[in-house]
Amino acid sequence: MVIAERFHFHKRDQREHEKISDYCTTLKKASERCEFKAFLDEASRDRFVCGLKSRNIQKKLLAEQDLTWNKALEIAQEMESAEQQASNYGGIGMQAVNTLKLRPRGLGKQRNVQKKEPGKPCFRCGAQHSPQTCKFKNEQCHNCKGIAHISKVCKKPKTGDKQCDEKPRNSSFRYLNDSLNYDNELGELFKVGDNESEPSVIVPVKTNAVDLNMKLDTGASLSVISEQQLKDKFPKVKLENSNVRLRAYTGKELTIVGQAIVKVYYGDQECELPIQIIK
Known about the structure:
This protein is of the alpha/beta class. It is about 35% helix and about 15% strand. Helix 2 crosses helix 3 (about 40-50) and helix 3 (about 40-50) runs parallel beside helix 5.
């Protein structure tokens, strides 16, 4: 029946993934049994435009004036080809973007970043710094008597005071060198060897009205003089009890007979200074 054939014709839309050329061929075959006669091209055009799955192509054809069946087919095929090419290019671009999004954050910056390995300890003292800047590069080792390192890192067998070499030092002791010359005007603190890498800084001060030249030592935590120096320089100063305990750098304990409180004047500055008295 003609009505049934025309019903199927007008219900035929372009299917998913069906090319326009295939859709056109299907409509032509379906129209053969519809008996459109003189209205065949017009009916085919209308069904073609209404059944397109691409809304962009459909809108373009509806906007065309004097649209014929052949013209509609030509425009639709050109736009289909353009959309297909754009889709292919767009797919490549989207894949590249997705690849960038999936890349771990900061990967580009980390490619040239090398993990910094911890440096080797200084062979002169064992600390983490360059041996060229080590403050012990001119000092004498108390173990092997060599120069340019200390006994802590000495590779030769330990000699001398085993108690000092094998056991950790008591944290309640302060350390200074047992080779101090107590005949000098003022004892020196934390002196490791006789060879000094830098010249000493001597500061003239007045102590209890007595002029003294004191060696500046920013690493010293206290000042010491011998018992004989106390008698010579400060005979009237009262000797007080001292709880300080001192050990030499080699570990030998020194005898503290007490401490004296003296007034020290330097320029316009004044302070009271406790001095440890060594026997």
